Amino acid sequence: MPDSRTLPRTQPVLHDSRTTLTEFRPGDENAMVEASQDESIRRWTAWPRSYTLTDAQQGIAQRKERFRSDSAVAFAIRRTGSDLLVGGCDLRTTQDSPHRFELAYWLAGHARGAGVASSAVRLVCQWAFRELPALRIEALVQPENTSSRAVLLRASFTHEGTLRAFRIRRGLPIDLDCYALLKNE
Ligand SMILES: CC(C)(COP(=O)(O)OP(=O)(O)OC[C@H]1O[C@@H](n2cnc3c(N)ncnc32)[C@H](O)[C@@H]1OP(=O)(O)O)[C@@H](O)C(=O)NCCC(=O)NCCS
């Protein structure tokens, strides 16, 4: 029977001299709970305000289930040479096209300011354009989230426009800037 999956059956390890991307592993939960206390994560992501060890365990199980069902691959971000989880970078498939993917990422406060997220985004995009049918990778960012925008611009994404009142977050409509990177860029 032909394989109808968009994502591979096993998740690769991606790395450069700064950043290594692996699966999430049992033992990553404490670092996720600690990261959830960070002000930027609270402000710019939909993580629950009171994020517990159980939320982290469920989060890891949910990431594995999404990979099994071909809807997303979730990379744990680690500094190369260390096992400690310092962030996450998700690549989601889309319903409408096997060629369009969505990217999302976060980094623990202590790991910022060293180019780790930018490396992670570059590694995931290079892999997706090389190994998956990806032609377009998108990221949606709140206009005021300047650190996130800088990550995308460093990785050569283009700002394509603003989706007004595109999502409801914590009960309020938010605008999202759409950034995209194409395979041949
Ligand atoms: C968005 C987020 C991941 C960006 O983190 P970050 O540390 O600023 O990004 P990077 O890891 O790529 O590091 C870039 C910084 O390191 C510096 N840097 C140092 N060495 C570098 C290198 N070799 N390459 C690139 N940048 C380097 C850059 O100058 C930049 O610093 P600056 O912000 O003072 O200009 C982080 O702010 C975050 O997790 N925010 C909360 C969640 C979030 O907003 N997620 C995105 C939702 S759309």
Automatic annotation (TrEMBL):
Pfam families: Acetyltransf_3. GO terms for molecular function: protein N-terminal-serine acetyltransferase activity; protein-N-terminal-alanine acetyltransferase activity. GO terms for cellular component: cytoplasm. Transmembrane segments: none annotated. SUPFAM superfamilies: Acyl-CoA N-acyltransferases (Nat). Residues 31-175 form the N-acetyltransferase domain. InterPro entries: Acyl_CoA_acyltransferase, GNAT_dom, Ribosomal_N-acetyltransferase. It comes from the Bacteria. PANTHER family: ACETYLTRANSFERASE, RIBOSOMAL-PROTEIN-SERINE ACETYLTRANSFERASE. This is N-acetyltransferase domain-containing protein. It comes from Streptacidiphilus pinicola.
